[in-house]
Amino acid sequence: MDAAQLKMFEAVARHGGMSRAAAELNTVQSNVTARIRLLEEELGRALFRRHSRGVALTAAGQRLLPYAVRVRQLLGEARRAVEDDGAPRGPLVVGSLETTAALRLAPLLSTYVAAWPEVDLVLRTGTTCELIEEVLERRVQGAFVCAPVSHPELDEDVFFEEELVLLTAPAITGLDQLLEQRELKIVVLRVGCSYRQRLEEILARRGIVGLRRLEFGTLEAILSCVSAGLGATLLPRSLLAVAGRGRRLAVHRLPAAEAAVQTLFVRRRDDHLGSALAAFLQLVRAGSPQADAAE
Question: Is the pLDDT of residue 291 over 50?
Fold first, then answer.
């Protein structure tokens, strides 16, 4: 079993067929079929079940697949590391919290793309839990997430300090009034969002449990619903100047211990820090004038 066989096996598993894998690998189907058969004979296990629409993994194939994916990723990283001569170029996939993307990164993207036109930049947003998994699985080269993070395979670097505030409709004049509501609703992103978890912890410390949750997929929807009086949410104060314009919102400050939050950039410790990512992080570290003005 060698890297070439595993690469071919992974392509067949991903495409669900020999012919589609052959097209990706720039070879003929008969070659793929023969190499997969040799791999199965060497391992003494069938890796695929054949059916009319292509192939599906057997139990043994499912156990092998994560290792084949890792090999493909490592080979790609090795090639990029060798080809990296210090000039940013090639693919760069970065993950970010939606709030960080809107507040800190959006003002810088055009500057980066103009400075390094040979970089193919992709920015993916998600929750802290989702993004950490993306980094660990090497689907992104690094991600901006909410602290704390502690994982033996990740390096962490603090990039931003934010103040979290509780947001409600203007009719709510203070935290006491909010907490006295018979049926408190919070307007949040999906499970895995660090701000959602922080808000639930803040309310739990004040004896508020059994919350009703209104879950939305974007910050725009959350802020609109809060402004309309559907519930409360927790977000960075500095985001309001960017995403909260034109909305009527009441801003409620929290004790410093509950309000302070750090945004980290996490990446795998065993990954090569390429020139494209290094240049991107240097630009972000320099700061966003728009974000600083908002604070």
Answer: no
What is the average pLDDT across 58-79? 89
Q: Give the C-alpha separation, 239 to 202, whole Å.
A: 20
Predicted local confidence at residue 294, as pLDDT: 42
For residue 232, give the DSSP letter. B
In terms of Cβ atoms closer than 10 Å to its own Cβ (0-12, 13-18, 19+), residue 41 is exposed
Residue 1, SS3?
coil
What DSSP element (H or E) covers 121? strand 119-125
Q: List C-alpha distances in Å: 12 to 33, 34, 37.
A: 10, 12, 12
Q: What CATH topology corresponds to 3-83?
A: Arc Repressor Mutant, subunit A (1.10.10)
Q: Is the pLDDT of residue 196 over 80?
A: yes
Cα 295 from Cα 293, distance rounded (Å): 5
CATH for the stretch 90-160+262-294: 3.40.190.10
Class of domain 162-260: alpha beta
